[in-house]
């Protein structure tokens, strides 16, 4: 008999006589079977994704407690993991939508029976207020809306209670998909307005602590730094009702403790474990480990153009030939990823991104290229990595150091604490050689290039600048995938990235999650947070 | 020394704390600003551009000059406002108020446990030099000094939770399916007893056991060693020999004369140990997912959360000042000579 069963049964045996005494206990005690217990490293710091300083775990709040107009479909990968399908846009709060004949606006019909958690109906007015908020508050939500060419409140109109219209400033293939990301949540504007003040017109202080949504789950409890508890919203209309009545999300900072909790059966789902643990758990077969390659993401080595030797293409290629890719894949990723080396040709044939680069470990070739570039005797360079990501970057950095040493490039390891990383790597862009990983939310090569290969953009920590890439990205970003110019443009971009290698990818990492075998419905999402709506326990 | 004398002593000690507190306010402010990270860049989020970083910087008041920021900080402080922690999104005062009892409950339980083991062990070891108990004392001391707390913590979790399964899941102050008792003191053990809820009391105690034992291991060593050493010294002194020669009972000699005289250095060690513990808390809290102030401070430090770091250091400083004061007062109770010459 397990301890908890014992507690439960002894509670039952004591019977009604002691009930008044137990009044503070039984709230959660009911139904372990329809409750899902999740353990993770860090919890949300806000209930409002639009707030400044909201952290990544808070995106899960937006996903589970709020609705968006549309969502994404799902598909199953070859390894059995289910993931969202970015090519299928599905109705969520919007029942249907129609594109105007001129292609310059879209009109959404909202579900007539949808309500917020407080029971009030969801109207187009709420949608407008929420969208106005997202494009007006500045910071991350506004930048993300901009990615879909959603810039200003004038674009949004509440035609009638159930009809909402977006006018386009320009045609962009990213507009509709951008409505399915966690940012454009639909907030209960009647309630929120009650808490707005002159200083705080968007009720930021109130929404920070109190979610006002109509999503699949309601917030039962939030103890910052400790736990979040969702309860199912039984009146939810925007999709199939969640399989779990309650989801308890506990913060457990120590990875080994998270693993122990899962293996002992005290937790149903464990996130954020090191790749090594996921591999061991998968091998043990006791729990189920599901991994999907993180879309639009690569663990890679960035070469800064401000560092003199890296200005020469031959040197960058030489570096690309002196990386021990296979060892890194084994020691840093523990095989939980997709290799990005050994591509067939310098001429890409598919627009898929990321795809393997045409380099492999070849020290002789590297030495040749270095000699040709005039660095026969090599050079010295600091190799930086983010201590916050040490579990993969440290072994990778050591192996890179070893590989570079074989061709005469001396590197010294430079460990940078997490808080400082962003400033040094991304804002100042001052690290000559650094390990990085970036994943774009919208899964298009041109979107990745926009963030990483265009000059001056945040994740272009390499200070890379190529006029052809600049022009290609600008013209391609808005093109529909079906547009005749799209494929050749993207192929050309990738070809340049192959040839110029300011960024040398190692592998596309997996997002792994480990669950008890009886937990079904896990789905990988680009936002990398747990979508609890589909989770359920099989009995 | 009379009651007034003691009051004067306490008053003087309180006054002495003022410069230290002012110093701490200045030093923490300067140190947090000297941290390498840029909180604005960190909190601007994944897709931040120059503009949104600047917006965050303005929202945090970091665009103002350092003296301006400091002045604002002092004014807020005078009103009891420690600012808002950007990493948790809550006022720092609230965070500390919420988390301090968790840390104190853990620390004090561990301290009581350590005293309960270390003092008898030390006394026995001192009275029977080179006996088995003396060797045991030596082993405990060596182990306690040489094993880092996070190791002991993980080891205990592995053995007692994972393998033997005698303790509940190391997941904070209460089992996942239990609810916290209504807050009075913030100590779950006390609050649950106040409403007569023995089930929650038991659950809280079960959760507390392993982290408290882990931590007591850490402080057992200095306490036992100091007790042993101090007792040995006193037992070898002349007044004990005189007492022995006068045929006083061994118990009386040991507890009334020897132990009382050995207590001062033990008390000093206790004060030091307590401050170590508040530091060591961090690691234990991490391993056991304990929602205390230590893990809060470390998270804040990692992301350059200025207000939270300042608030943490300041409240710890106040705690230390109070602790030292308490120890000074205890000194005067144990040894009336203390304070007269000062």
List the helices and strands and how they pair.
The complex is a heterodimer of chains A (539) and B (342).
Chain A: H1 3-14, H2 26-29, E1 35-40, H3 59-65, E2 70-76, E3 82-91, E4 94-99, E5 105-110, H4 124-136, H5 139-147, E6 156-160, E7 163-167, H6 175-178, H7 189-194, H8 204-209, E8 217-223, E9 227-232, E10 246-251, H9 255-264, E11 269-270, H10 275-284, E12 288-293, E13 297-303, H11 313-321, H12 325-331, E14 337-339, H13 363-373, E15 380-386, H14 390-406, E16 410-416, H15 418-427, E17 433-439, H16 445-452, H17 467-476, H18 486-500, E18 503-515, E19 519-520, E20 523-524, E21 536-537
Parallel strand pairs in A: 1-10, 1-11, 3-20, 15-16, 15-17
Antiparallel strand pairs in A: 2-3, 4-5, 5-7, 6-7, 8-9, 9-10, 11-18, 12-18, 13-17, 13-18, 14-18, 19-21
Chain B: H1 3-34, H2 39-43, H3 50-59, H4 66-78, E1 84-85, E2 90-91, H5 92-127, H6 132-146, H7 149-163, H8 188-194, H9 198-235, H10 238-245, H11 250-287, H12 293-302, H13 306-334
Helix pairs in contact in B: 1-13, 5-6, 5-9, 5-11, 6-9, 7-9, 7-11, 8-9, 9-11, 11-12, 11-13, 12-13
Plain-language structure description:
The complex is a heterodimer of chains A (539) and B (342). Chain A has 539 residues and is α+β, with helices and mostly antiparallel strands. Chain A is 31% helix and 23% strand. Chain A has 18 helices and 21 strands. Chain A starts with a helix and ends with a strand. Residues 1-30 of chain A have low confidence and may be disordered. By secondary structure, chain B is mainly alpha-helical. Helices cover 75% and strands 1% of the residues of chain B. In chain B, strands 1-2 form a two-stranded antiparallel sheet. In chain B, strand 1 and strand 2 form a beta hairpin. In chain B, helix 5 (92-127) packs across helix 9 and helix 7 crosses helix 11 (250-287). Chain B is globular and about 85 Å long. Chain B starts with a helix and ends in an 8-residue tail after the last helix. The model of chain B has no long low-confidence stretch (mean pLDDT 84). Classes of the chains: A alpha+beta (539), B mainly alpha (342). The interface between A and B is large, with 60 and 64 residues.
């Amino acid at each position: 008999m397990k301890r908890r069963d014992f507690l439960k049964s002894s509670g039952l045996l004591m019977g009604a006589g002691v009930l008044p005494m137990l009044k503070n206990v039984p709230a959660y005690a009911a139904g372990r079977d329809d409750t899902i217990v999740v353990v993770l490293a860090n919890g949300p710091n806000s209930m409002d994704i639009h707030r400044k300083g909201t952290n990544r775990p808070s995106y899960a709040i937006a996903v589970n407690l709020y609705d968006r107009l549309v969502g994404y479909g799902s598909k199953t990968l070859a390894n059995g993991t289910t993931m969202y399908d970015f090519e299928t846009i599905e109705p969520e709060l919007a029942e249907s939508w129609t594109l105007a004949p001129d292609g310059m606006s879209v009109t959404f019909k909202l579900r007539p029976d949808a309500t917020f958690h407080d029971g009030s109906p969801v109207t187009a007015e709420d949608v407008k207020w929420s969208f106005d908020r997202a494009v007006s508050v500045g910071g991350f939500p506004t930048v993300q809306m901009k990615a879909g060419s959603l810039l200003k409140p004038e674009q949004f109109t509440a035609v009638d209670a159930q009809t909402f219209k977006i006018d386009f400033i320009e045609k962009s293939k990213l507009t509709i998909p951008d409505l399915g990301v966690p940012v454009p949540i639909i907030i209960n504007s009647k309630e929120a307005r009650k808490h707005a003040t002159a200083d705080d017109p968007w009720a930021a202080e109130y929404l920070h602590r109190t979610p006002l949504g109509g999503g699949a789950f309601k917030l039962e409890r939030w103890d910052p730094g400790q736990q979040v508890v969702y309860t199912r919203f039984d009146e939810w209309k925007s999709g199939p009702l969640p399989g779990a009545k309650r989801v308890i999300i506990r913060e457990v900072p120590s990875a080994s403790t998270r693993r122990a909790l899962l293996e002992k059966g005290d937790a149903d789902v464990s996130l954020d474990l090191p790749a090594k643990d996921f591999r061991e758990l998968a091998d043990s077969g006791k729990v189920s480990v599901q991994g999907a390659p993180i879309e639009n993401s690569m663990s890679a080595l960035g070469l800064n153009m401000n560092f003199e030797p890296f200005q020469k293409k031959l040197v960058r290629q030489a570096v690309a030939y002196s990386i021990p890719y296979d060892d890194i894949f084994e020691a840093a990723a523990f095989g939980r990823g997709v290799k990005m080396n050994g591509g067939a040709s310098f001429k890409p044939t598919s627009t898929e991104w990321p795809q393997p680069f045409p380099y492999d470990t070849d020290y002789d070739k590297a030495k040749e290229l270095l000699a040709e570039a005039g660095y026969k005797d090599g050079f010295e360079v600091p190799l930086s990595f983010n201590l916050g990501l040490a579990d993969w970057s440290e072994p990778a950095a050591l192996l890179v150091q070893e590989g570079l040493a074989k061709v005469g490039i001396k590197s010294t390891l430079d460990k940078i604490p997490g808080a400082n990383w962003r400033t040094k790597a991304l804002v100042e862009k001052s690290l000559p050689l650094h390990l990085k990983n970036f994943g774009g939310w919208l899964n298009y090569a041109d979107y990745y290039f926009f963030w990483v290969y265009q000059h001056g953009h945040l994740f272009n920590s390499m200070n890379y600048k190529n006029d052809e890439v600049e022009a290609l990205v600008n013209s391609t970003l808005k093109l529909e995938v079906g547009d005749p110019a799209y494929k050749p443009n993207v192929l050309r971009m990738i070809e340049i990235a192959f040839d110029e290698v300011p960024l040398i990818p190692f592998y596309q990492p997996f997002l792994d999650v480990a669950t008890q075998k009886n937990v079904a419905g896990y789905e990988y999402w680009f936002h990398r947070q747990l979508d609890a709506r589909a989770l359920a326990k099989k009995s | 020394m009379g009651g007034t004398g003691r009051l004067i002593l306490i008053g003087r000690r309180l006054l002495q704390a003022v410069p230290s507190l002012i110093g701490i306010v200045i030093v923490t402010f300067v140190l947090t600003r000297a941290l390498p990270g840029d909180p604005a860049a960190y909190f601007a989020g994944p897709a931040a551009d120059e503009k949104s970083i600047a917006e965050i910087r303005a929202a945090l008041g970091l665009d103002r000059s350092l003296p301006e920021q400091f002045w604002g900080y002092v004014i807020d402080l005078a009103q009891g406002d420690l600012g808002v922690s950007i990493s948790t999104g809550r006022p720092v005062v609230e965070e500390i108020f919420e988390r301090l009892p968790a840390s104190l409950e853990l620390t004090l339980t561990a301290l009581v446990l350590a005293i309960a083991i270390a003092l008898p062990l030390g006394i026995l070891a001192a009275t029977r030099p080179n006996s088995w108990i003396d060797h045991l004392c030596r082993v405990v001391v060596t182990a306690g000094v040489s094993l880092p707390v996070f190791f002991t913590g993980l080891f205990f979790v592995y053995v007692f939770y994972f393998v033997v399964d005698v303790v509940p899941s190391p997941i904070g102050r209460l089992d996942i399916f239990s609810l916290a008792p209504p807050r009075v003191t913030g100590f779950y053990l006390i609050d649950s007893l106040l409403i007569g809820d023995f089930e929650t009391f038991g659950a809280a105690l079960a959760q507390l056991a392993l982290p408290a034992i882990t931590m007591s291991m850490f402080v057992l060593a200095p306490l036992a060693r100091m007790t042993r050493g101090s007792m040995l010294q006193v037992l070898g002194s002349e007044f004990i020999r005189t007492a022995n020669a006068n045929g006083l009972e061994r118990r009386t000699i040991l507890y009334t004369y020897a132990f009382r005289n050995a207590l001062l250095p033990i008390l000093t060690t206790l004060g030091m140990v307590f401050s170590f513990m508040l530091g060591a808390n961090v690691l234990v809290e991490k391993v056991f997912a304990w929602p205390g102030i230590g893990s809060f401070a470390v998270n804040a430090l990692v992301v350059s959360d200025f207000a939270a770091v300042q608030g943490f250091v300041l409240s710890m400083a106040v705690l230390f000042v109070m602790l030292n004061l308490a120890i000074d007062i205890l000194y005067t109770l144990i040894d009336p000579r203390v304070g007269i010459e000062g």
